[in-house]
Amino acid sequence: MKPPAFEYEAPSTVEDAARLLADGGDDAKLLAGGQSLIPLLNLRFAAPSLLIDLNGVLELAHINEAAGELRIGALVRHSAVAGHALVAERHPLLAEALGYVAHPQIRNRGTIGGTTAHSDPAAEVPVVLLMSDARVIAHSTRGQREIAVDDLFVSIFTTSLEPDEIITEVIIPDRHVEPGTITGSSFQEFARRHGDYAIGGGAAIVELDAEGICRNARVGLLGAGMRPEESKAAAAVLENSTLAEDTVREAARVATAEINPLGNVHGDVQYRREVIREMTFRAVMTAANKAKAGTA
Amino acid sequence: MTQISVRVDGASYADDVEPRTLLVHYLREQLGKVGTVVGCDTSNCGACTVHLDGESVKSCTVLAVQADGSEVTTIEGIAEGGELHPMQRAFHEKHGLQCGYCTPGMIMASIDLLKNNPNPSEAEIREGIEGNLCRCTGYVNIVRAVQQAAGEMSSTAGAQA
């Protein structure tokens, strides 16, 4: 047996799951897609007393739109999010980023709620959610509340969820677009092999008006520190410019000037900072070119 | 112990399993389906790839209890009436293997790839099997095998995927 022994419950409703989690004590863990948790169990880096399997909670498996927002149930698999028409139409950056999430088999299991709750600063989905002003719904036996992802991501593998709360839904508002502008976005990531854990990355959304002036920009950084990061300073450099190469280089420099990536055997802090700077540069340039070509 | 009911390669099974039993260990040790192999145990290598309700998954990162009520297809369940699946035959004919350890997972991942994309480019094939490591071949003949199978399966109506 690879994993340590644990008690196992498979509730079919959020209410039951919340009760099990509330009663389960500190060592109870939720199991969604299991693509991070089960390897951790196999390596015996995690030893929960109770696993509460959410895979039978079918009310968490929806994608729908309401009032200008996309509401994605926490249990929706990465492959389903990436392949969904509304995601492709309204949040192409999310669909593009999901292409970097591990491998097809893992995208068939991994869930949007799972990766959000896991709060890995080098994960692809959290940084896109941050750039999209997304929110999550957190459920517990005490009720439910909404949390902006900016308030949710606290640190590496740490969120502001209470121990008895379950993420049940991720809400992504439609982007407000100024009339007469065209939006482009791009996600760029560097890893030793495609699909491996990212060494670093950058993402960008830019909005160009008819004169080619950038009206709005969002710049996100992957693996830049203890949580997914967004650089408002880089966006300020880009906004009201024509996104000329020098300007974009300056924005990438500003975005990464003060970041502190975690160094390890695959790259020290300085190397990673430079990787993230280059990926950010490429993301903005690619996003700008897409906007100019009108291909989102 | 938890009781599960699962269909594997077309046959129904009801078994008691410890919740911590990985699907791959259940398949191999309780059902004797040793065609599915264990590589890394941490979802890196893809050797243990099977289909769970028609989708490729790494069976080292799924618990057997999570397959309760589901349909599992392994490498042992894709030949029909003693006739190799076109993907198996293509791996044989194009010599898409050397030691053969990655082959069951490669074949299951490749079948799922063609289900979603019946006519993939070479780049799409390489991306589609990026979750499966081969340490012998350098992938060249594996890619050729998938290309051959894609050609065959898309030319026969109702290709079995």
TrEMBL record, chain A:
It comes from the Bacteria. GO terms for molecular function: FAD binding; oxidoreductase activity. Gene3D superfamilies: 3.30.465.10, CO dehydrogenase flavoprotein, C-terminal domain, Uridine Diphospho-n-acetylenolpyruvylglucosamine Reductase, domain 2. It holds the Pfam family FAD_binding_5. InterPro entries: CO_DH_flav_C, CO_DH_flav_C_dom_sf, Diverse_Substr_Oxidored, FAD-bd_PCMH, FAD-bd_PCMH-like_sf, FAD-bd_PCMH_sub1, FAD-bd_PCMH_sub2, Mopterin_DH_FAD-bd. The keyword Oxidoreductase applies. Keywords: FAD, Flavoprotein, Oxidoreductase. Residues 1-177 form the FAD-binding PCMH-type domain. PANTHER family: XANTHINE DEHYDROGENASE SUBUNIT C-RELATED (PTHR42659:SF2). This is 6-hydroxypseudooxynicotine dehydrogenase subunit alpha. It comes from Klenkia brasiliensis.
TrEMBL record, chain B:
The keyword Iron-sulfur applies. This is Carbon-monoxide dehydrogenase small subunit. Keywords: 2Fe-2S, Iron, Iron-sulfur, Metal-binding, Oxidoreductase. It comes from the Bacteria. Pathway: Alkaloid degradation; nicotine degradation. Residues 2-78 form the 2Fe-2S ferredoxin-type domain. PROSITE patterns: 2FE2S_FER_2 (PS51085). One of its GO terms (molecular function) is oxidoreductase activity. PANTHER family: OXIDOREDUCTASE WITH IRON-SULFUR SUBUNIT.
